[in-house]
Design brief:
The chain is an all-alpha fold and 128 residues long. It is 55% helix and 0% strand. The model has no long low-confidence stretch (mean pLDDT 76).
Length: 128
């Protein structure tokens, strides 16, 4: 768990009447999302922008698409690399690929960023 997540966990516990609730219940009561989910949300939006060409010069170098398109329900999947060092699991590409491949097709095939964000909000509630 990240340091900021621990701070948010402690801060929500300090609010009167919420100390007996679980962290998830406190977030729900305060209409907040966890910092982990917020980070994933931002990462997936950045990945969508890379894949749709918002960053023209680097988009093809950041992600590679999986060669097999025979998977049901997905417009395309991203290739997940294999690394020997555990530290590389925290890189942007490694954090995003597994979650991107689990998104429904209607989310990944969104025509615009606004549509993607709206569909991603619904999908993330079931993803984590």
């Amino acid at each position: 768990m990240e340091l900021l997540e621990r701070v948010q966990r402690r801060a929500t516990k300090m609010i009167g009447g919420m100390e007996h609730l679980s962290y998830e219940e406190r977030l729900r009561e305060l209409v907040l999302i966890s910092l982990e989910k917020r980070r994933l949300w931002g990462d997936l939006i950045a990945a969508f922008q890379y894949l749709k060409g918002a960053y023209e010069k680097d988009g093809d170098k950041v992600f590679s698409r999986a060669c097999c398109y025979r998977k049901r329900g997905y417009g395309f999947k991203l290739k997940e690399g294999w690394f020997r060092l555990d530290i590389r699991k925290n890189f942007f590409m490694m954090r995003v690929v597994r979650h991107w491949n689990r998104l429904p097709r209607e989310v990944t095939d969104a025509p615009s960023l606004e549509t993607f964000q709206a569909r991603l909000d619904g999908a993330l509630s079931n993803l984590i």
